[in-house]
Structures are given as C-alpha cells and as structure tokens.
Records
---
Amino acid sequence: MSHISPGDTSFVLICAALVAIMTPGLAFFYGGLVRNKNVITIMMQSFVSLGVVTLIWIICGFSLAFGPDVHGVIGNLHYFFLNNVGQAPNPQYAPTVPFLAFFVFQLTVAALTPALITGAFADRVPFKSYLVFLTAWSLLVYVPLAHWIWGGGFLQQWGVLDFGGGMVVHASAGFAALASVYVIKKRVFAPGEDERPSNIPLIAIGLGLLWFGWLGDNPANVMHANGMAAQAFVNTFIAGGLAMLVWMFTDWVRVGKASMVGALTGVLAGLVAVTPAAGYVPTWAAAFIALAAGWVCYGATHLRAARGWDDSLDVWGVHGVGGLLGSVLVGWFAY
C-alpha cells in the first residue's frame, strides 16, 4: 500500500469514469442515426453491455485477459471472481495505483467494445439474440485479443504496440461488423420510408460524450499522471478536430456542401485512428494520422455503399478501417 500514488490513483479513476460515459454516449450517437422505430432498441443494446460485460469481467473475463500468461494464448484463472484483485498495486500493470483501479478501467473499455458492433446490424437483430452474441463475442474474441496484445500474450511478446485499443477495440469491432454483413439479412424499407438519421441533435450529444470520454480513455493507458498521458490527451483532442475538417472539406468538394452527420463522423474517424498511437507519437504525427483518417475512412464508407454492404452505421468504415490505419501508422511514427 505504501507504493500507491494518490495522484496516479485519482487520475486513473477519473479516466475510468470518463470511459464509462462513452457507452451511454454511443447509445445516443447510434440512437440518433437509426430510424425512429429502432431508437430504443439500439440504445438498450449499448446500455446492456455495461451489465453483461461487468458480469463476465468479474467471473473470468479479466482473469483470462490479464491473468498470468499460458503459452502466449490466454491468461489463467488467477484473478477468477476477482481473487487477488484488491487495493494493493500490481507491479506488472499498475505499480502505483490499486489493482482495482486498473480492473475497473479495463472493464469500461471491455464494455464499450461489443456495443460498437451493434451499429452494423441495427434494426435487424432481436434483443435475445444480441445477448447471446454479446456474451460469446466478449469471451471468444475480445478477451483473447486483449491478452495477446495487452496481457503478455504472443503479440505483445513480438513487440506489437497498441496504446489505447486500435486493434483490441476498434479494428476487432469494425471487422466483426463487416463479418455480420455477410450473416444477417439486409434491412427492409417500406415504400417511401425515410432512411435519413432520426435525430441529429441526439447524434451530436452522443459524439460530444464520446469525444469527452476519449480524453480519459487514451491517457489512462499510461497508468500515471505524467508527460506521456499529457501527450496522449493532446493527440486525442487534435485528431478529432482535424479529421472533422478533412471530412467536411471532402464533402464540400464532392457534393458542394458539408453535413453535420459527416462532420461528426469525421471526428469519430480521427479519434479511432489516433487511439493505437496516442501516447507513442509526437503531436505532428498525430495530426498526420488524423488527416489520413479523414480521407481514408471517408473513402471506406463510400466503398461500403458502392459494394452494397448493409453496415447500417458504417462501423467497418470508421472503426475497422480507422483502427487498422492507426495501427499501421504507429509503426512509422512511434518514438
């Protein structure tokens, strides 16, 4: 207990609270994008992730992701039902904060990730089926991937860098979304039914909460209130703003006007792309990543439309492609 830093502990707990608000933010963001009749359903899909993933994380998810490594593939059950997870620091993951603080921060990230995927099959998956998917995907995809990259698994042993979740969170969710396009039938629209977003102010509120939460999500991965955390904070903020401008400018050139939904989508693309690099790159590199994300993700969303993939809310184009792009560029620009 003598090694606990009050400053670091306060910092991590505040950041965990910021990340926790991202899941409700996602609910608002997606709720505004879908048709009126589906608003409550998709918002519930986001909120219920906070409950289901919490249960999984307590029982075995956290242990399998961050427990002592087993052959580079998965963690063991050393932290089963939070056994050995207490107020004392953990030298491997959180040397100056209570291990419980690290646990709850990782829980908020784990709860957000599967909720991202729901934007791909909005309007089409019954709630009971979604609960099965949420549980299975969290255990079979997210948990092993988190261990491989963050928990001492084989990818981390090979030197793979993923500061805040470009691969663990965004690329995994984005490409899961693309896979769902080939499994779930397309949406059906009634003749003359309006396909436009139902509530743009709700989208803006949701994006605002996501951006706000992201300013805790990336810096907290340092687990210290220090210069790297400040670098991650700055890189995260500027990436959202610059990618928004790129998306708006591209819309102006292509269609003669900018749209609110497009501008907000641009912010999201920049935040996603800078996430794997946030604390590893200088500010100028984060700016480059943001500019690249604005153009590349914009192109990916239009490619998706041209191919007829019914990824309802462009999860693949923004999270999948943005996460992959940032994960590649961190190798170019990391200190």
---
Amino acid sequence: MTTRLNSGISINNPADLVAAVPPMLGFAPTNSLVLLTVHGLPDAPRFGTTMRVDLPCPGQRSQLAAHLLAGPLRTHRPDAVVLIVVGDQTNRQRCATECPEPETCQTTVDVDGSPPHRELVDVVGDAFAFAGIATLHALWASEIRADADWVCYSSTDCHGKVPDPKLSTIAAALTAAGVVTFGSKDELRELVAPESDEALARRSARIDALTDELEETYGPDRTSHDLKAVFSAIRRTAEGSALTEDDLLRVMIAVSDTRVRDVALGAALGESSDAAEQLWLTLVRKAPAPELADVASLLAFSAYLRGDGGLAGVALERVEKTRPEHRLGVLLRQALEAGIPPSDLSVIARDAAEDARLMIEEDGAW
C-alpha cells in the first residue's frame, strides 16, 4: 500500500511512527505486520511506501520475508525499513493445519518477556539485513489508538504510550486535504458494501431490460453512445448534478465493454479524477453481479493512483468475490502486492486507454 502523504514524521521518535500508521494506511490495522520503507539515508531520510500484511502463521515467516523482498522491496529498493507489529493474534482458521493447538498460534508474550512475535521480527529482520536493508526500528503495539502500549523489540526500556493518531501531524495534513482515516479495515469495507439483495436484484432486471432497449435503438455497435454516457455522468457528477438510477445503470452497462472501461481508466489521470472516483464509489454499492467487477476495478484503479491502497484493496476484494478471474482485477491485485508505484501504473493506464481508443476508432465507433 502506497503512503498517501509523507511529511512531519520523525524517524527518531518511535511513538510518532506508530501513531502515523493509520493515516498512512487509511485505517487502523489489527493483528498485522506493518512495514514503512525509508529512503534517502543518511542525508535526507524520507518515507516511501507503507505495507501491511496479516500476522503470518509460525511456519510462514521465512516465506513472508522472501515474498516481501521479491515484490515490494525489490520494486522500491529502500535503504531501510521500520517494522511495526500490531496485536498478537494470527488467523486461527488459516493456521489450523500448522497449529493444531490454538495457543501455539497466539502467544501473547515470549518466554523471555519480549513483545509478541519476536521470532517473526528476527526472521524478517535477518532476511532484510542479508539483502542489504537495515531495520531502523522494530516496534510492537497492542493496538494503534491513543494511550495504547508500545515497546521496542531491542529493549524493554524503550516503551511508552501511543499518542492520539488523530492528532498527529500527518493526520492533520491528510484531514486538511480531505482524506478520511477509518477506525478499522472493516469500516473501510463498509464504504464499498453492497446495498440490499432486493435492490441488487431489481437493478439486475432493469439492466437486462435497458440492454434490450439499447440494442433496439443503436444496434450491436453502440460504443460511441456508451462513451458519451460514461463521460457525461462524470461531468455531471463534477458539476454536482443528480444522476437518475437509469443514468447509473447506463454507465454500468457501458463499462462492461472492456474497451469503454479501459478508456474510462483515463478519467483517473485528468481534472475529473475526483468526480470519476465518486461515481465509481456510488456504482460499487449499487451494482449487481456481474457488472460490479468492472466498476469496482475502476474504483480500485482510481484509489491506487492517488495512493490509497486501503480503498483499492477492499474494492478488489469485491471484484475477487464476484469474478475472481476478472483480468483487470487480477492485474491490479498483482500491482498492489508488488508495490508498483502509482506513477508507473499511470503510464500503463494511459497506454491501455490509448489502445482502447484505437480499437474503437478502427471499428468506426469513436
């Protein structure tokens, strides 16, 4: 997940580092390993990317380290990292085959009195060191909220209380920029949660009827009309004009054509990016299957491009539950896990949009 803002955090203050995690991720993580990449050492240190993974099962620590080195860290090539473990619980169901006795998966304090998941920090830190990446800090926090406990793995004398994340410098800057930090990933998931089954079924039936109407009116080649419908909806959203339900359904139908959808990716690159993302977010809550996958992918791409990996991730979860083979969804998930910078993804999107335009022009429908 890409850091959404990079200012006002002191590398030398562990408490501030812990408090900065929720605004950098977009939500307060639980039972997670968080990595902050650091660049520009020693003269001008700056943070690059923030990544979060679930706490791994005991037998998967080495694999996790190898995955991080082969993916995000190879992409970003940091000078150093900060490791922050949040909570102490691994996923019981996922670890069941490895840990027949649940207590072996959720030790709260190691025998020597060090914070939980000491072995995880040692395995990951050693693997990074072998690859030439230093660990500036390794920290544990019970949770990330005001007055929660934090402690350094290097010394139990290094400890304290987490300052209020909402009052941190980075949180203030993000709030001023209109960015919302959620209390948990579940709260973030609620943002893209579907409406009632009855509403989705009603819209699905209306989509079928509207598609038949479009076929009768425009014939099989209605691409230019689809493009007009999409970009008209984005323009009207930007102007604050209300869209009817049929307007929204019309956009869902339009972007189910991969060529139209790929042209629509370009909306995230221009002046209408905020309006486009607002439209995709509205559609994600209202779209039935299979139309959901395309609008959710558009939302994921838009969020990714502005550095909001949290929103991109939960949008992709909806794609994967509906159409796990969805090509754009698969590519975006791979990009997210590999830590591909938004700037690189924007180049790919421009190329995809241009290719789609050329295909449409060749069909005489532009």
---
Amino acid sequence: MNSRFVLAFSTLVGTIVGAGIFGLPYVISKSGIIPGIFYFVVLGGVVLLLHLMFGEIALRTKEKHRLIGYASLYLGKWAKKLVTVSTIVGMVGALLAYIIIAGDFLEIIFSSFLPFSSFVYSLLFWAFFSLFILRGIQTIAKMEFLLSLALFLVIFGVFLFAIPKVHLENFVLFDAAHIFLPYGVVLFAFAGWAAIPEVAELFKNRKEKGNLDNLIWWAFVPCGALYALFTFFVIGVSGPQTSQDALSGLTPFLGNHVVILGALFGMIALATSFLVLGNYLKNSLRYDHKVSDAVAAGIALGTPLLLFLVGFREFIAVMGVVGAFIGVFEGVVIVLIYQKARQKSMREPEYRVQVPRFLILLLVIMLILGAILEIVAQ
C-alpha cells in the first residue's frame, strides 16, 4: 500500500477519533440503544457524505484553501466573513476542549508518581503537541500513524478487561425523554472534515488523488466500529452509572489500572485530533487570510491557551459550543460550496459524488432541525 495513503489514512482517522468518543456512552445510555443505532447509521452517513463533498471541493480547486477560502471563492465575501468566525470559534473551542480533558487524563495516568494538578498537565500537553503543529503536516502525518496504531492497541486491551464485566441488563432500549440527546455528540464525534484539505495535500499526482474518496470510506469503517464497541463496552459495564467522560464511571467495576489504560487511550485520541485541528486553523489563516506563519501559529495555539488560563475549563460546555458551530453551521456551508463548485469548477476532479438534489435538501433540513431539537433537549 502507498505510504502516503497510509499517512493520510492515519491522519483522517486521528482527526475523527477525538474527544467526542467519550460522550457517546453517556448520551446513548440515556436515550437507549435503538435511538443510538439510528443516530450512528443515519447521522454517521450524513457526516460521511459531507466528507466526500468536501473532498470533491478540494479536488475541483487549483489553489490551496481551507473552508474559509472555499467559502470566499465559491460563495462570496459574505460567506468568507461568516465562515471565518465559525472556523476560529469552532477550532479554538475544539482545541480548548482537548486541552481541558487532556489534563484530566494525564493526571489519571501520572498522578501516582508525578503529583501535578490537571491544570499543570493541561499546560504540558499544550506545550508538547504545539511543537508538532509548528513543524507542519508532514511531521504530523508521521506522528499520526504511530499514535493511531497505539490507539487501537490500547483500546483492544481495555476491551479484553471489560468483556467479563458486560451485563445485558445494563442496556436501555428506548427512553423518549432523552431521544434527542445524542444528536450533537454523535455529530461532533464523527466530524473530521477539517483534515480533508490536509490529507489531500499529501497526495502528489492524479492517481493518488483519485483514492481520496476510498480513503474517506475506509477511515469511517474503523472509526464507526471503534465508536460502537467503545459505547457497547462502557454501557455494558457501568450501565446507569455511565459517566459523562465515560472513564470515571468504570472505576468501581474495572479498577484503577484499567481506567489508567483507558485514560492512555483517551490521551492518544486527543493528541491526534489536537495536531490536525491546530494545523488546520493555522493554515486557514495562512492560505485564506494571507497572514504570516508566526501570527497564524500565535492565533491557533495562543488563543485556546489564553482562554484556558482565564478560566474556560468546563469540558461539556465547551464541546456543546463547538458542536453547534462545526457540526451544523459548517455542514450547511459545505453543502452550499459543493453545489457552487460543481457549477464553476477550476479543474476536473478525480472523483464525483453523485447526490440527488432531494437528498441534499434533506441533509440540510436534518442538520438545521437536529440542531434545534438538540437545544430543546438541553
């Protein structure tokens, strides 16, 4: 298999699997397994389609852009301004969420022999992985491959410990009171389109670029399987005691050592997403607003750190804002850009997504209606 395909694959998988996975068991334990399966299949399919659309947009455009640039190019200046706000708020919020929860996970892992607070561990996480973002996507892609491999090995170990503790009576089939609760979390968990322009740059010729759609499909297979298994085992073990972070609720059943292993898995998942999203925001400012490398890196890395330092440290609240901006707003924008790009394409794309017009309209309605129902559910 082509080494660049492997690096691109691990980059996309690493971006998709992030903080969102830890919210899945909690919301599905509340709504029930039947709504959970519906959201996984239907909403997962919607997000997959958005990834494929974004990939075609990237292949139809000659210049290097991110969502901000594509919005300006195909929709106009008004769209560029709106998407700039959405991108900065959404990406900064996502990076902030990773910094917050990374401190908690690192404290679980190292507190027995390095008794730092989660605050200090969050700062160490930010400092270490910011260095890789400053180095660029080629360095990140190599790091992603190792982290993604370690991620699946660690979670497999957690599953082995959890199997004997799973009890089917812990699963709720349906709870109408929480039926809309999983919407935002599932959408957040599957959204990884920020990596699409990044991985497209790793492909150097038309033959390689023609595999971008296959890459997206294949990335969703292990991600979806991992989400389903993680959710199944966490709910199966902790049942009604399933916690919002998924891990702390497992301690009474699996013990501290297994939870530490789970925290290690969490750290790997967070690190992979932090790397790509940080690089995406930096390059959005570089390519789409023509700011210098230093200023772009300062905004991308300094802003979430500043927010963390001044007191924004509520993980669930931050993730809710990110889901609203990235999941719903950017999803609709991608659909609008996709339709315009097909009308005034700059180059012949290596693949085309065949989407009926009624399905595009249905997709937009689902994103907007889902966001409204999510707010009502809160």
---
Amino acid sequence: LGVNKTSNRGPRPNANQKPTEYAIQLREKQKVKFIYNVMEKQFRKLYEEATRKDGVTGLNLIQYLERRLENVVYRLGFAKTRRQARQVVSHGHVAVNGRRVNIASYRVKAGDVVSIIENSKNIDLIKMAVEESTVPAWLSLDKAAFAGTVLQNPSKDDLDFNLNEALIVEFYSR
C-alpha cells in the first residue's frame, strides 16, 4: 500500500483548516442565541429593531436581550439558570410593576419593578435562588421583598460571558 498520503478522503478532510470569517460570525450569533434561549426568527427581529434604533446596533442588541423579562428574573436571582427563569415567568410567578406577566420575552425598561407574586414567595426553588444571588450594577434587589428594580439600561460590561457583538452585526449585514 502507498505510504505517502495525499488523498483527502478522510472522515473530515477540512478538519485542520482555520474557520472562515462567516463561521466565526455564525458561531458568535449561535452562542448568543443559545445563552438567551432565543429562536432565529425572534433574534433576527431583535437585530432589526436594534438597527433601526439610534446608537450602536451591537450595544442595542445586547440591551434588548438583557432586558428580556426571563433574563432579568435570572439576573435578579429569582432562578438559578435562564431556562429556569423562563419557566418561573411562564408559570406566572412574576409581576412587573405589580401586574402579573407570563411572557418571557417581555422587555422591561428603566424604573420597572420586577417582583415575585405573593403566593409564589414560599416556593423553595425561588427562595434558594434568591439567597445565593449577586445582582449586576444595572439592577437593584430587595431580597426580603422578593423585588428588584431596573435602574438603567445594561452595558456591555454587565454581561456574565464574553461576547463580540460586532461579529453578529457583521453576520446580519452581509
């Protein structure tokens, strides 16, 4: 049999190639979609809205994602994961400014008070999560009342993971 291997007929012939620019952008977008648990159609709508708004598109997109109710519930520490937060919201345990909201994608704004409704304050899952929580600078939390206030729009520094939002903007502006 031939000793010198020149054929490309392996299981993954391009495995040692450097990822393309497109691949890097796609991976960044998919990472963010996965972290925030957002489907493609919804993510694209958020991106288009962020493009229309004045300011930096990437930063607007981050703010929109961070200000989703499910994410705010997670950041306030009413749930241990974003997926758990989504369930807490959709099961109707959360109120915004005193009104029950069960839409995970509801966007809170500065000044909104996000709280756990009275009947749900004794749920062990929520109690345990609140005790262990640390809150980012753009939110404030009253642990005793199970309520948090949105103080301002989040900035890129408030993220709990690394993100290059410019890659996502480039991905969609192709």
